[in-house]
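Now for our target.
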Amino acid sequence: MSISYLIKRILQMLLTVIIAVTLSFILIRALPGDPAERFYGDPRIPEEVKQEIKAAFGLDKPVLIQYLNFLKQFFKGDLGVSYTYNRKVVQVVLERLPWTLFLTAVPTILSMIASLKIGVYIGCKRNSFADKVIRYIAFALHSVPTFWFALLLILLFSFKLQWFPLQGMVAPNVKGYETILSLLHHAALPWLTLFVINVPGFAMYVRNMVISILGEEFIITARAKGLTQAQIRKKHILRNALGPLFSMLTLRIAGMLGGAVLIETIFSWKGMGLLVLEASRNSDYPLLQATVLITIVSVILANFLADLLQATFDPRVRFE
């Protein structure tokens, strides 16, 4: 991979980030509601005080000036102060981000491992009975709405069997190692939901990729050399399948940072998803912008990482 390619990609990422910042700034301010209204909701507050409150948050300036100030602060790493929490946005986000990563990364990685085994197995046994059964199950699960499946698990395991708590992250009044056990206990149902929802898509992706790889000339050559099916699967199929799969994995985890609203709302998990919902309800511009921009930057970085992984695992990939 050449230096010129890296410079080109970095410039592309910067341009994409600037465009994303601009669009998010415009779209978020197009939302209904006055973010400063929470501070002067009482009609008895004089108009002069209202203007002072707006000036304190920079809302009295023209939109263009607000945008230029925000862009300047953004590249300094300062995303402003949250109207809701009255703290720096970066601090609020950094408190919630690890919990979303904990909630989404674990089941996503586990589903990738399971999907890799399932996809390679049915891909090598195309149109067999096992392939057909697993495909039907995968298509059925892939069609199930995430929220419906999550509610079904809550109804079964929380209401009926009472094996897992209904919501929250940690039980009250726990200390020490009990906190970790309680956290894992509360995370079990969200993990199970994301795991089951992710496996069908990953597995079908791997299966189709394996079928494509089996038609390559180097597979025919490997068979002609007398390699067993297990050796072909390990040395040739898995190596060529890992690159695209890791690419899909990085993008999926990055996308889940912004797409965790539904799961976190259902299970009352205080991560980035609920933070986005709170910021949207409260017209908290700085906080909402920060969550959107972190998601966008994560996807951009994940895309770049996916290219590097693709080049590492697939020797056929060459960058200009």
In short: The chain has a mean pLDDT of 77. DSSP finds twelve helices and no strands in the chain. The domain at 99-270 is CATH 1.10.3720.10 (MetI-like fold).
